[in-house]
């Protein structure tokens, strides 16, 4: 129950994070008038979010390992609170840019504390990470409606910032009543394994993740900020169609979250999803940039939201987390998750074994089919991606087939007894 309450608070942070990502973009006109600057200057301020994110990613992950996850979740919330309140009141452009950088740091701090917390809590970290994206998408979906309502009612734009800050305060109180998992201990004493190669690997993974996270977030921010203007001025689409490209992107994002979450729960490998989604997003973005066909651009806008904003970056974070040094307890949690999938698949296999056993009995065939079992073992060798694993996998399959034969034999015996009883 406590972990459930902690998860809700962590998800709620990403609802606010979704608001934080687009709140400057959705208030560009109001901020331009408030700061008495052109829209290009507001865009310059928005770029500070990406800069802050990039700068922080290189250091916060390792610090999170040292000082614990709760510290950095709270740091992220505090930075976002300062950003929201400050942006509602600030008039100095340089100070506003500093606040935008602080929002980027808040994003990195939340990531450093939250993704690793879900890993240490156990369970399916890939799907949990995608749920974070779902809450982000909810924030990105609801904020434009709120801003539009404020504009229609001529309410001060700053209330959208103050409302987000107020939710953070309430969530901070709820979150700090919860118990976080024990912090990760990066170095395990007495393992007898050199830690230097692992540290180098972690450094390379961190650099790669920082670059991937920055470019992914930059593309999504650029799209949401400029796609409507690009569609009207360059592609010569109508204003309604130009705004529809942004709506389709949001619909694709929400759809992508649902589909990716389902695929991860079904056991699809994160690396395969990562490659497929990144390839799809590149293709969709190229179509949007160069295709003058309205229908094709609409389809590509949905596809870009589905592949780029539907949780692929969160899948990337899960892949990174799975390939850096972890504790023994974390690795055992991964084994538990894999075992759950294996048991589910073995149940399905034995259900099929039942059907095969009934067909064999009807056709009066023997339980043992030596040639079939040899073909199964050959297929195991062909499909094994690690040669060193192959003999062990074949031994496992021999045990599975041995137990399948025993199960079929029991079924035949029970059915024969039932026939005698009926006679």
Show the helix and strand layout.
Elements: H1 2-26, H2 28-35, H3 39-67, H4 69-89, H5 93-121, H6 125-153, H7 158-175, H8 196-233, H9 239-265, H10 270-290, H11 294-308, H12 312-322, H13 328-362, H14 370-383, H15 390-422
Summarize it.
83% of the residues lie in helices and 0% in strands.
- Sketch the topology as an H/E string, one letter per element: HHHHHHHHHHHHHHH
The total beta strand count reads 0
What number is the mean pLDDT? Answer: 80
Largest sheet: none
Strand content: under 5%
What is the 3D shape? elongated
User: How much helical structure, as a percent, in the residues?
Assistant: over 70%
DSSP summary: helix tally = 15
Distance between the termini: 55 Å
Which class of secondary structure composition applies to the elements? mainly alpha
Q: Report the C-alpha radius of gyration, rounded.
A: 27 Å
- Unreliable spans are 184-195
Give a written overview of the molecule.
The chain is mainly α. The chain is about 85% helix and about 0% strand. Helix 1 (about 1-25) packs across helix 6 (about 125-155) and helix 4 (about 70-90) packs antiparallel against helix 7 (about 160-175).
Top keywords for this entry?
single chain, 423 residues, mainly alpha
